[in-house]
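Recap from last week: sequence in, structure out.
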Amino acid sequence: MKIAFALFKYFSFGGLQLDTMRSIRELLARGWQVTLFTGEIESELPELPGFSVRQIPLKSRTNHARALEFERAFHALADGKFDVTVAMNRITGCDFYFAADDCILDHFLQKRSRLTVALLPRYRIFTRIERELFSPGSPTQILCITERQKETFQRRYGTEESRFHLLPSGIPEKYRTVRANWTEKKRLDARREFGIGENDFLAIFIGSDFLRKGLDRTIRILASLPEDERRTTKLLVAGSGRQNQVLPLIRRYGLNGNVLFAGPRNDTEVLLPAADLLVLLSYNEAAGSVIAESLCCGVPVLCSGSCGFSSLVREAGSEVVPDPWSDETARALFRKMRNDSGEYRRKANEYADRTDFFRRAACMADILEKFASGRKNALQESAEKGRTGK
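Predicted structure tokens:
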């Protein structure tokens, strides 16, 4: 079987990119031939048997124009040449769309009027693509990652229930043995790299889009702590986001010694268990894979209600700042988790003991194989009818 994946941009640390590569590796292990079509390559891609990469050069300057250019080029290159096509970004005309992002129409209408969304090219084009994907009658099957996502798309577009395939969480295999192999020495070594004390309370933020993922909210919480608590509280920021977006805020509150930047890391399985709390107070987050990674490591989580995986956080006995957002509630929950960190860690470890965090790629491959098999059988039946005239 041959399958094509369409992905606007590839870089090593993106959650969508990691999901894409885990799915590709799973399909390769099952004997598929996989081609990845991408517009931008910012990190080296692995060389794997049965795996090929086609880069599509893009000339447009704006994101919405590049999206349309990529869509046209992908279909010109891929249509009719593959058993299954999977769009990892919003692209119409594919067999499957992996809904890594929340409903864009819902997001736009929270910030702009319907008239603005209808008239400005960026809003108009992205919402038109999404409408074509989710409107009743579209042939595209939807791979979604949270129940909340599905409900929002159905509310906005009336999408048929039968087209949705809800995927479980899926994180890298390297997290599977983290807790079993963790030692106090590893914890101290990870902290020592950044000058963090053994008894400091360490909150960690992991993500590449600092503002969307609410790093500013976390910094303000640190600034609100009583002096004695603030002095022994550190925030480690791991990700490739732009530091200049939050440095003025850090300086304003005098938190230069509290907020530490680790830069982009591919060893978060080392950093996470050294922390006392993962903080992800996103303004908009379809899922938040780092939540599952943190809980798998037995590390409690404080997240916003906007995170799709907030349901996992509740199941693990950690805390969610409910919508609508409240600074006061967020500050209170952070202090509560800080001052009772042992109990929250106990609950997170119990949750990790009873939860399978690794099924997404296999589940997605099962769905794609079933679809391809059904299509093949339908074509064979059609050919047989053509031969027999029955």
